[in-house]
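anyone seen this seq b4? input:
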Amino acid sequence: MEGSSSVDLYANNDKPIIINFEVALLPTGIYVSIPRGYEAQIHSRSGLSINHGIFYLNSLGTIDSDYRGQI
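predicted toks r here
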């Protein structure tokens, strides 16, 4: 969407079912290669957090340049 500073990240799962207060690890199917000296970050979007109680467990996820694996 124009003006957004980020994009939505979706689970690579047809219909993940998460019960209230349950913690789940959901695959994204996305692999990245971050250039040395940079990092990628994953944040909770306010709309999903407030309206649906969906948030990233530690509130901020850092993906270091040496990480090789699925996000």
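The mean pLDDT is 79. Residues 46-52 form the longest helix (7 residues). kinda curious what u guys think
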